[in-house]
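Here is an idea for our session: we take a single protein and study its fold together. To get us started, please write out a protein record for me. Start from the sequence, derive the backbone structure tokens from it, and show both lines together. Go ahead whenever you are ready, and we will take it from there:
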Amino acid sequence: MISGIAAVVALFFSAVSLYFSHRSLTWEKQASEAATRSADAAEEANRLLRQQIEEGTFGHPASARAADIQLELQHVNKARWVLRNTGAQEVTGLKVTGVPDGVLHRNIPENISLRPGEGRDIILQGTLGSPLPNQLWATYDGLDEPVALALSS
């Protein structure tokens, strides 16, 4: 009887030991995968840094370029608007979004370029069920997040 109890206790501790060994192995595997991802990210960062140095753009972030780009939506008359680059840099890859369904529109930019001072005509006409929005959204090369373009008469 005592040997049976000892066998059950030994079996219990073996099961607990097996459980913790398995958990430890799982944690070790997750740590290894995290280290690999970290090394890959560091490698990519080094590659991008080398590329910036070779291109001569290191120390001149895209945000500085983006600060020289100013876009305005100018209301000309009725449904005619002009999207104008009033900044000092050319904007490339310009795309405008945010026109609600039901708003009549034409010539909404999709992957265009605008030199400083250049403008592009846009037609926007609200309808009874779909008035004009307060703003549209613009994205362009070198910009991480869309910027709002206010629609004001």
Remarks:
- The chain is about 40% helix and 30% strand.
- The longest helix spans residues 2-55.
- The chain has a mean pLDDT of 83.
- The chain has two domains: 1-60, 62-150.
